[in-house]
């Protein structure tokens, strides 16, 4: 009896397209964090748009990094570059899936880390 392969040997596997669709969703959430959530948090913490100001020194390092001008765009670019590499470079199917999955995990994990770090100081005094 012959077993059917889960992943095709040639061409782009469907799992890479699924990973690409999830990556686009992660990039949209990253853009939402950058354009909507980050400016509100910077204003809430009284940073005045400057992360290097004196009031920023009271914030934890993770929060300063999450609200900095380079962190969110960097994670979006690295995740998108890994996904584009998985789609465009003619690697074997297994390697494409690994690279695409790495791009998705990179984007989503770092976005969750950025949101957690950015909102951490706002909620740290709510515990009894």
Account of the protein in words:
By secondary structure, this protein is mostly helical. The protein has one domain. 67% of the residues lie in helices and 0% in strands. It contains 4 helices and no strands. Helix 1 packs antiparallel against helix 3 and helix 1 packs parallel to helix 4.
Offer a quick outline of the entry.
The protein has 128 residues and is an all-alpha fold.
Protein topology:
Layout: H1 14-44, H2 61-66, H3 71-88, H4 93-123
Biggest sheet features: none
What is the 3D shape? elongated
Overall radius of gyration: 19 Å
For the record, give the distance between the C-alpha atoms at the N and C termini, rounded to a whole number. 63 Å
The total strand number stands at 0
Key phrases:
0% strand, 128 residues, mainly alpha
């Amino acid at each position: 009896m012959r077993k059917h392969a889960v992943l095709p040997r040639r061409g782009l596997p469907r799992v890479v397209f699924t990973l690409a669709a999830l990556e686009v969703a992660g990039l949209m959430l990253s853009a939402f964090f950058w354009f909507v959530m980050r400016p509100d948090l910077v204003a809430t913490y009284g940073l005045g748009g400057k992360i290097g100001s004196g009031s920023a020194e009271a914030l934890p390092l993770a929060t300063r990094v999450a609200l900095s001008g380079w962190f969110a765009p960097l994670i979006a670019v690295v995740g998108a570059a890994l996904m584009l590499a998985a789609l465009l470079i003619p690697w074997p199917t297994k390697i494409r899936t690994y690279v695409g999955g790495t791009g998705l995990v990179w984007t989503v994990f770092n976005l969750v880390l950025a949101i957690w770090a950015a909102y951490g100081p706002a909620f740290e005094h709510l515990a009894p």
